[in-house]
Amino acid sequence: MIRLATNPMTPATTMTAMPPASRWLRVRDGRHARVTYEELAFDLVTAFAVTQVSHQLLEHLTARGVAEALIVWFAIWLGWQYACWFTNWFDPRLSRVRVIVFATMLATLVVAAAIPQAFGARGLVFASAYAAMQVGRAACIVALLPRGHALRANYLRILGWLGIAAVFWIAGALVGGDGQLLLWAAAVACEYFSPMFGFALPGLGRSRTSDWTIEGGHLAERCQAFVIVALGETLIATGATLTVTTAWTGAVVSALLATFFGTCAMWWLYFGTSSEDATATITASSDPGRIGAYLHYAHAILVGGIIATAVGNDLVLAHPHGALHLTEVITLVAGPAIYLVGSAVYKHVVCGRVPRSHLLGALALVALVPIGFSSSLLAMGWLTTAVLLAVGLWDTRTTAA
After folding, report:
1. What is the end-to-end Cα distance of the chain in Å, rounded?
2. Using CA atoms in the order 212, 267, 52, 386, what is the torsion angle rounded to 10 degrees?
3. Cα 274 to Cα 88, 220, 260, distances in angstroms
4. What does pTM read for this prediction?
5. What is the mean pLDDT for each group of 10 consecutive residues in the chain (401 residues)?
6. Interatomic CA distance for residues 22 and 272, integer angstroms
7. What is the pLDDT of residue 144?
8. Do residues 204 and 160 touch, judged by C-beta distance below 8 A?
């Protein structure tokens, strides 16, 4: 029997008519699938969530506060990631798909608004909205696709794992306290690690990344847009802190320059040296689904570093002459270091190499820890920025060569 790949987003089908529900899939015509306005609108809501995470971390710079911020951040990231894959496969310009995108947007807005009290009075609101978003989207896709469709089998497995995670989310919100932290960590683990073994479930089998035929340019552009959003929120937070600063002294202006140039260095490390390689790598790969998954794992680390750096920037700008204690030292060093590690992983995925500049830069940042205890926030801010700028310059020279 002759088999035709009528749509690269679907498995090869016989010469019979394409199932009616397949019309909701993106049409692949060999050209780069553009990011739609619906997706950009969703990213703006996610930007608000990113801001909420950084503010939450800034107000709770303790070991528990960091753990809570990590869980909330992974929830935001995973919600965005699953939505990103959904719009890579399905066309958001079509009515049913657009409704799902907007419903996800509404749920994300509620989740973001609940973040400040996620481990308090609004824990159940956070968990319910998040679980409804994840489970509801997967359930709609299962209902949308006909039996026998490869994506339907994949989403049945996804629905199973998201359902398991939803139990942990709701149970954690009801339990509260340390139990909430542990149960929500289990929920994050279900959603984060299940793709690594193909969402395997008894009776449903497992998915293979080779079946996740994706449009590389679209996925790379979505990741790049998220990085832009995160970096933009970092600058907005800097501007907001500057707005409420009473006296714009020389130290405040110096702090502004340190935080601004640090953000520019992070932008250059991503967009100036390797961002265009992601599209080519995914497109040329024999297993684009696997590369796309690796890309998202790398960006979770990378954007997490941006959020932590934004917190450090706020500290520097608000109290440039302030002395550093252990919490402040770790915050100022950890943000850029996490970013460099995430960037190194990203470049390993798209370029097949781990830049020495990034590893040495991360080590240089760690070496600054003892210095931080005898420095001011402003001095430490400039030192971490200097490391990022040096890594950016080194990377640029290496790429040019």
Report:
1. 52
2. 130
3. 22, 11, 21
4. 0.83
5. 35 41 60 76 89 88 90 93 87 86 94 94 95 94 82 88 96 94 96 85 78 71 86 84 84 92 92 66 69 81 91 89 87 94 88 86 94 90 94 78 55
6. 38
7. 83
8. yes
Report the candidate in 193, 105, 100, 110 with the shortest Cα–Cα distance to residue 139: 100
Domain ranges of the chain: 35-207, 216-400
**Helical ranges in 16-62 per DSSP H:** 37-59
Task: Count Cβ atoms within 10 A of the Cβ of residue 277 and give its class: 0-12 exposed, 13-18 middle, 19 or more buried.
Answer: middle
What span, in angstroms and rounded, lies between the C-alpha atoms of 310 and 332? Answer: 9
CA 200 to chain CA centroid, Å, is 24
Q: Report helix, strand or coil for 323.
A: strand
Q: What size, in residues, is the chain?
A: 401
* Burial group, residue 164, by CB count within 10 angstroms (0-12, 13-18, 19+): middle
Helix (H) or strand (E) holding 305: helix 288-318
Position 241 scores a pLDDT of: 82
- Packing angle, helices 95-114 and 123-144, rounded to 10: 170
DSSP code of residue 26: P
Gap between the Cα atoms of 198 and 3, Å rounded: 26
DSSP 8-state class, residue 4: B
- The answer to whether 54 and 311 have CB atoms below 8 angstroms apart is yes
At 261 the pLDDT is 94
- The amino acid sitting at 209 is T
Place of tokens 């340019």: 217
CB within 8 A of 199, min separation 6: which ones? 154, 157, 158, 160, 161, 206, 207
What's the token pair of residue 386? 């200097």
Alpha-carbon gap, residue 356 to 290, rounded angstroms: 25
**How distant, in Å, are the alpha carbons of 345, 363, 370, 391 from that of 367?**
21, 6, 7, 15
Q: Give the amino acid at 217.
A: G
Instruction: Write down the residue that tokens 């991503």 correspond to.
Output: 270
Q: What distances in angstroms separate CA 394 from CA 222, 309, 350, 357, 401, one per listed residue?
A: 27, 21, 19, 6, 11
With beta carbons less than 8 A apart as the criterion, state whether 320 and 376 touch. Answer: yes
Write the CATH number of the domain with boundaries 216-400. Answer: 1.20.1410
Phi then psi dihedrals of residue 22, to 5 deg = -65, -15
Phi, psi of 183 (to 5 degrees): -65, -40
CA dihedral 290, 182, 315, 322 (to 10 degrees): -140
Of residues 9, 27, 24, the one with CA closest to residue 95: 24
